[in-house]
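In keeping with the milestone schedule agreed at the kick-off meeting, the structural modelling team has produced records for the first pair of proteins. Each record is given below as a sequence line and a structure-token line. The laboratory manager (R.T.) confirmed that both were archived under the project's standard naming scheme.
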Amino acid sequence: QLERRLEDNPDSAEGWLLLGRTYMALSRFDEAVPALARAHELAGDIPRVIIQYADALSMASGGAIDARVLALVNRALELEPENISALWLAGIGAAEAGETKKALAYLRQAKLVGSQKGNPIAELDSAIHELETRLISSAQNPVTNLAAVTINVVVKIDPILLSQANSHDVLFVFARAYDRDGPPLAVSKTQLGNLPREIVLDDTMAMAPMFKLKIGDTITITARVSKSGKPRAQSGDLEAVSEPIVVSEQNTITLLVDKMVK
């Protein structure tokens, strides 16, 4: 319906912005990018539009903050230095570049602005804590802190639910911190195919550089067979969630998909 409206009114910046937001909410990031690019072209340098376009570009690239995203973020901060979303993305970009102190400065400023506006963001606390821990750990033990982490996840399905799964469904496997909020530490998205199968999670699959798999952390791992192709659980999806596990350099876990989301 939005697309049809835009056919009649293709120069509506708000229309393209709404369409882009809708695609983002549906995790259709590749489609959100051109919609938000058009909104930015029509609206000009409005910080909220710039940042939504930058966010779409980042999500379409798996959460990466590349030069194009950074240019948009920096422009938004020039226009609105206290834009929380821009500060957040700038912090992620700095963390990706290994500039931990700079990343902390951006995120602490975002937290301060959020608190002043009565809009605290739990994920900021988690990100700041993670970066502070990384900074201390790097200073104390710079060699072992670089140890790579891999988790081998063997996904099986309960025979009772086998008829509910289609080889063309999407299989999401992701790790989350057990004791704090924040985005997944590693995410895999593949076509289901035939089970059992093995999925490998590692640091390259992090959604944000300050939220990565780290030795000694306690995590849970979820396997979800998605009917819609979206990561968020929906009625009819099939899933399994592990008990809490402590991350080591090499980890192997088996998940039996035995529950249907209601």
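The second protein of the pair:
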Amino acid sequence: MFLITFTGLDGSGKSTQVKLLQERIKKNGQTFLAFHILDFSLANQIFRSYKKKGSPAPAKTSASWLGIFLRKIFLFIDLFRFRFFWQKIQKQKINFLLADRYFFDQIVNIFFLSQKPIPKTKPLWQKFAEKILVSPTQAFYLTIHPLTIQSRNRTIEQGLNYLEKKQLILDKLANNWNLKKVNADQEKNQLADLIWKYIQKINH
């Protein structure tokens, strides 16, 4: 089974590319399972259970020390849950597991909410998270300028400054995680063609 993940800014087209990739996989006579990391997150599941059905978690641009600590704890819990899930689905006849966002995005969000510079020495919590993380077969990073995102008739709740700061963090960490950067500032089907070419290379 191949684990294919999509990381990027809000509005970069991750969900669209996951859907287009599903269509390609179907046409190729193969099977897939798709999930969104926010739906998988235990913290989000708990939040939704206390709110009205379908109510999203409020957008945040910062968090307290306790909030950051709890996010790290839930990150570790989710990483272990995903490892168990990954081992379980190995028994099924599924060719691809597609992730709309992945734990890379969760780590980036923790750094962003802490509002502190990324330390030169990797913190212990990050080292531990990366050690237990299931490494993707191919991890895509959809790169695009924040201004382009805003021009796509999509309102990002946190604003341009949020996108720019998050992009800086993503760019710094992308190389450490060996993310495959693909230019998302192009027509969606052209981007899907490019992604499919990379997928075919690992699918033979």
